[in-house]
Predict the structure.
Amino acid sequence: MATALNLLNSLATSSAALWRGTMSRPAARQPAKTLVLYDIENCPYCRLVREALTELEIEVLIRPCPKRGERFRPEAERLGGKAQFPFLIDPNTERQLFESADIIAYLYATYADRKPPSQLRIKTVDTASSMLASGLRTRRGMFARSSVSAEKPLVLWGFESSPYARLVRERLCELELAYRVRPIGKAQWQDFALTPVRNRLWPEFEHVGTYRRALKAKTGQVMAPYLEDPNTGVALFESEEILEYLDEAYSSL
């Protein structure tokens, strides 16, 4: 029952955020070096940046900085001079940015060759709906829990608004596990069909997104979330199984 209620709450959270971070319209250029985002999963301002990264289909290395965290928060404060999130580092341009609206404008200007959502919209409608979404999740994805570190970042294939991927991101944040996000936002109407239906009706369907194509080639299907752990060789679909694995492998409670 608790699992079902948590998922329903996550669905409501996606609705509260107006399902931003679902669609993909890839950037004109992809960064040669992976961007780094110091992030708190349930922070409303961090969510806005992750939504933009899904839309632009830009891979990012997330270093989670939950409250009471000790693994990446000190590093972020040392590099940026303050404990404020989101905090983006672009090793391609050596730019460091705080403030979600500034980061989003930078991403579009640097990689997309098109205008971002208006600053007015970001600071009013988008921020208000993101704050409502964070309120629904309360403490989930906000506070660190005791864990062991991972030598290599994990890899999460998903998209920001996915209610299932959110559950995994929350746990990764709480366990302070660095992870790469490979965004598989939806770009065609067929992407909205359930995976078994899509595979049956359109077995030769060609996905548009780079990471959707890569995931299909790797696993034979496109579903969110899909987690790979290069430290153990484990790879899993299904959020419930992923959460069980993360707790068994990394939680030290």
